[in-house]
Write a structure and sequence with these properties.
Two copies of one chain form a homodimer. Chain A is α/β, with parallel strands linked by helices. Chain A folds into two domains: about 140 residues, Aspartate Aminotransferase, domain 1, CATH 3.90.1150; about 250 residues, Type I PLP-dependent aspartate aminotransferase-like (Major domain) (Aspartate Aminotransferase, domain 2), CATH 3.40.640. Chain A is about 35% helix and about 15% strand.
Chain lengths: ~425, ~425
């Protein structure tokens, strides 16, 4: 007899995608200490926090230094001052009404999209688009919902919804019944979006089948085109079937500062074995109050500053900066003859790798020959094989130089 | 067919203890809008952050505002600059050597002690002291390890280790085999400690039975007496069987700032069904890299500042302040004739309620008659019935006034 581990962990792939990239880059740098590596790989921002955020953070730090204004534990769900502004700026402005206790502030969408599966039963069937952000899959593997990894790189209890150039990255409704559907739009990694008419199909499917949609809108702030929904709640009936995740990471440069939020409308239901409906809002609230202690007061104050006239302006400038990078990458790749997707409503550019090369080979080639780091498509799922992700989060100079270096590589094929 | 919830959540008690306290206090305040309620209930600090921390936070905020020093994603496990100092100040100083990848920075011990069970098998038998910090039990209920709640307020698959005045709050080794043992010393809620000789019994038990000890040392900084272990790793062999949790919350006033850490030595093993040993360090690393994105850079910089000469001095002053409160509470209660425990190596005072009164009745009585909030012992488990927790985290003035108000209440029995 001995204490047992959660053996589902042994079913995970070797390592988290970005850890593997980090390992290869570190090895390259060791071999080439003088090479200047440009990373357009991991989706991490590089511009400083907006001025309004910095000022608000300083004020909050000062509050923590005085007994009169010091803050201890805050509400696990987040402070009202932030929740009210989120509702007003991110939802009411688009005609969506939310109650304050339907919004949960957290320290990141990775945590929230990773933890949300805890409130669901172990036997649910999970559907993910393919390619997909690895966290959705890995956290379900850990929970025992994924089954075993087969030779094609798929888990045998997960339903994969291929998204590729052939279907213009629009997933088809699954043939079999699924319970938990992860959708991310604007999409990571492909940078593509779903028009309202397509998103409506999913909401209708979920209502009909009593399924749940886990809607990751972390890149919402990058949407430029009309008819691209900013929130799933723009679709009629979505409040009955969808949980939405949003983040300050890419909106306001918070990847190292840590703040995000999750919307769980009170109408969204899950069901017991006996068929009783249970509000997921209640379960998530219980999960968060039991296992989480709220986001740093200082950080929440910083996040709140983006919801001011100044803050909004500065956030728009930040996003414009990255989207100008995206245009440079898109344009450069098109000039080089690549088939290119995304980069219009998202900071991600998804390119088709020349025939006959796999995506880790392409990764190594770019790293070794151009000293440019991207992300191999297959790291996001089997249907990502043959594709490669570049991100618009570098500096303007690095982005330009990376594209110049790629252009200087002659032998792509 | 419908998406299923995790029905283990329905086995939880009505609400998280402190949420229930909050509810009763809010109701009281509504009925008595002019009453000045003093809370010695929830274990939340009230003194401002130390000056060294404030300065370090300001510097870090400024770094985030400049492109040259901006920080995006950090290591999920935390920054080296903080980990190195933790090892040096909190462990090496006591003769304990740790490697850097054995320390994981997090946003709170509540999160860590709540999440740690994820890496363990669902069939393990959990042992907790009784009374106990509710998070250990509730997170195992959610994971399906606890069984069902019986009439005595116990879950039928959890092994409870009673701690009460009769055994001087020293738990006995369990008669049956247990796999996961939660120990918290200095103890929340009782404020009591375990001498080295007693802790050694647990380490020996765990080594003999291939069990794991989850050792919560969040209140380590409050230890004043000799022979009280500061870390479980002071006990020989503990690195093979123990995971230790520490927090900046009570050490440096970080309850609203959020930083903690967990030590998972590489020698600590869990086992597969087939008996293979798997390092828990690897599993926890995978859990954290998959579901967590690190603590705010700003906050980690703030935490690092306590490991300086100035910072150490300021933290000692902070703890001295609270421990002077503890002495006032202890002394006051003793003068009133209560049997009192804790408050010597911990900021918690655990008092025996007069015979014939239950702990929620005592809670309501204190709230209604003295406008003082404490925590009913039964909220921490069945063996907590008949006891009541007061905390030393108030201001000096409030602490003194609370004791005066209690003294003014004549009819305790």
């Amino acid at each position: 007899m001995a204490v047992r581990i959660n053996e589902n962990y042994l079913k995970l792939r070797g390592s988290y995608l970005f850890a593997e990239i980090g390992r290869r880059v570190a090895a390259f740098k060791q071999r080439n200490p003088h090479a200047r590596v440009i990373s357009l790989g991991i989706g991490d921002v590089t511009r400083p926090l907006p001025r309004a955020v910095i000022e608000s953070l300083h004020q909050a730090v000062d509050e923590m230094g005085r007994v009169e204004t010091f803050k201890g534990y805050g509400p696990e769900q987040g402070y009202d001052f932030l929740i009210k502004r989120i509702i007003e700026y991110d939802y009411r402005s688009r005609g969506i009404e939310l109650e304050e206790d339907e919004v949960f502030i957290s320290d990141g969408s990775k945590c929230d999209t990773g933890n949300i599966q805890e409130i669901f039963g172990a036997d649910n069937i999970v559907a993910v688009t393919d390619p997909v952000y690895p966290v959705y899959v890995d956290t379900n593997v850990m929970a025992g919902r994924a089954g075993n990894l087969d030779e094609s790189g798929k888990y045998d209890r997960i339903v994969y919804l291929p998204c590729n150039a052939e279907n213009n990255f629009i997933p088809e409704l699954p043939k079999q019944r699924v319970d938990m559907i992860y959708l991310c739009y604007p999409n990571n990694p492909t940078g593509m979006t779903l028009p309202k008419s397509e998103l409506k199909k999913w909401v209708d499917y979920a209502r009909e089948n009593k399924s749940i949609i886990l809607y990751d809108a972390a890149y919402e702030a990058y949407i430029r085109e009309e008819d691209v929904p900013h929130s799933i709640y723009e679709i009629e009936g979505a409040k009955e079937v969808a949980i939405e995740f949003r983040s300050f990471s890419k909106t306001a440069g918070f990847t190292g500062t840590r703040c995000a939020y999750t919307v769980v409308p009170k109408k969204v239901m899950g069901y017991t074995q006996r068929g009783e409906a249970v509000p997921l809002n209640r379960l998530w609230n219980r999960r968060q109050t039991t296992k989480f202690n709220g986001v740093s007061y200082i950080v929440q104050r910083g996040a709140a500053a983006i919801y001011t006239e100044e803050g909004q302006k500065q956030v728009r400038e930040l996003i414009d900066y990255y989207m100008a990078n995206a245009a440079i990458i898109r344009q450069g790749l098109l000039e080089m003859g690549f088939q290119v997707f995304g980069g219009i409503n998202a900071p991600y550019i998804w390119l088709k790798i020349p025939e006959g090369m796999d995506s880790w080979t392409f990764f190594d080639k770019l790293l070794n020959e151009a000293h440019v780091v991207g992300t191999p498509g297959v790291g996001f799922g089997p249907s990502g094989e043959g594709y490669f992700r570049l991100t618009a989060f570098g500096s303007r100079e690095d982005t330009r130089e990376a594209i110049e270096r790629l252009k200087a590589m002659k032998n792509f094929c």
